[in-house]
Amino acid sequence: MNLKNELNQIARNAKNACGFLSGLSSGTKNKVLADMAAALLSRKNAIIKANKKDVSFARQKGLPKAFIERLILDGKRIKSMSDSLLELVKLPDPIGGVIRAWMRPNGLWIHKVRVPIGVIAIIYESRPNVTSDCIGLCFKSGNSVILRGGSEALNSNLSIYNALISVLKKHNIPQGSVNMVATKDRKAVDVLLKLNDYIDLVMPRGGAQLIEKVISASRIPVIKHDKGLCHVYVDEWAELNMAQEICFNAKVQRPGVCNAMESMLVHRDAAVRFLPGMLNKFKQAGVEIRGCPLTRRIVKGVRPATEKDYRTEYLDLILSVKVVDNLAEAISHINTYGSHHSDSIITDNYENALAFLNQVDSACVYVNASTRFTDGYQFGLGAEIGISTDKLHARGPMGLEELTTYKYMVFGSGQVRNG
């Protein structure tokens, strides 16, 4: 079977499975998810062995450290993947939930009810934990899923996929419910994006090149999970010890992820008191600082920041720094240079905090907290498909409810329309 025919068959199988999935009880879904969580742990050694092949190949290719860090699986990360599936078990099943119900004067009862989207294709890059998260979320929300991971993580993804579909077989769930495109052929993405007769939604997760390709080529609606060019703004009213802890966490804890801080803004009146100690702490952690002229006057030895730096998602221990004159400049900078992902203000001034929350055009905005909390698990969503930087149909961490649409169910007693 050639590639086009193979992918058409996968998509047809996924479409055919939709009716079965939409009728599954919450109890059955939860039992399957619990068994999937157990399967990840029982096959941990096999998954790690497969992952080592991918990591070794990535190192041989000289891929960036941040890329490899996202690729690596160990016992702790597999346990976290298992825990995410168990968290989904605890969450309410969104399917069949009544969003709103009302009666019209003619006696019609109208219910706006959550239903699955249908077939979701997810195209993603190096993080193999995405495989289990997406399978779990799509299954509980009643959607069929077609996964196309990056070639650099193929061994890891297949090992995780095989562990989880073994559970589906045990419970007699149709094979088309969960699908993986196992080829490294890049043409597979082009074919998938044209299967609009079967696929209802495409979600790309990865770098700018992948996102742009999917948006330009897709005949199917797209929700993109774009880069995370996140900011922390240290206001003139900030408590500086707290600001230092938050900024350090946002940049250093895990620099290779989309919710890490890439650019730090500091109010001019706080800069002299804040920057020397903060930048020294960053340098001790191996962070390369690229700063504006005033930053470089306050702290010697800082590399000059360029226009490009303020637009760059480093995913590494590199940080751009800018001193701003006021809150309005900080907000303008974030809305101009940011990716509308996650941004935070550190301040004890209520009015400034409120202005930041209302005027920064990002999916997640914080007051006095690290941007690192933008995560489905941290938000109590169990897991996430990704962080949507779109405004339609979902924004921010996409959990179970974001993987549903709705229909109107109308109950009558013989009503007919006149006029």
What does this structure look like?
There is one protein chain. With 419 residues, the chain is an alpha/beta fold. It folds into 2 domains: 3-225 and 385-411, Aldehyde Dehydrogenase, Chain A, domain 1 (3-Layer(aba) Sandwich); 230-373, Aldehyde Dehydrogenase, Chain A, domain 2. It has 14 helices and 16 strands. It has helices at 3-22, 26-42, 44-60, 65-71, 75-90, 129-140, 154-170, 187-192, 208-217, 240-252, 268-284, 293-298, 327-337, 350-359; strands at 98-103, 109-116, 119-124, 144-148, 178-180, 201-205, 230-234, 261-267, 288-291, 303-304, 318-324, 342-346, 364-367, 387-388, 396-397, 404-411. The strands form 4 sheets. The protein has a 7-stranded parallel beta sheet with strand order 10-9-11-8-7-12-13. Helix 6 (129-140) packs parallel to helix 7 and helix 10 packs across helix 11 (268-284). The longest helix is centred in the N-terminal third of the chain and has 20 residues, at 3-22. It is globular, with a radius of gyration of 24 Å. The model has no long low-confidence stretch (mean pLDDT 95).
Highlighted features:
19% strand, 16 strands, 2 domains, Aldehyde Dehydrogenase, Chain A, domain 2, seven-stranded parallel β-sheet, alpha/beta, Aldehyde Dehydrogenase, Chain A, domain 1, 419 residues
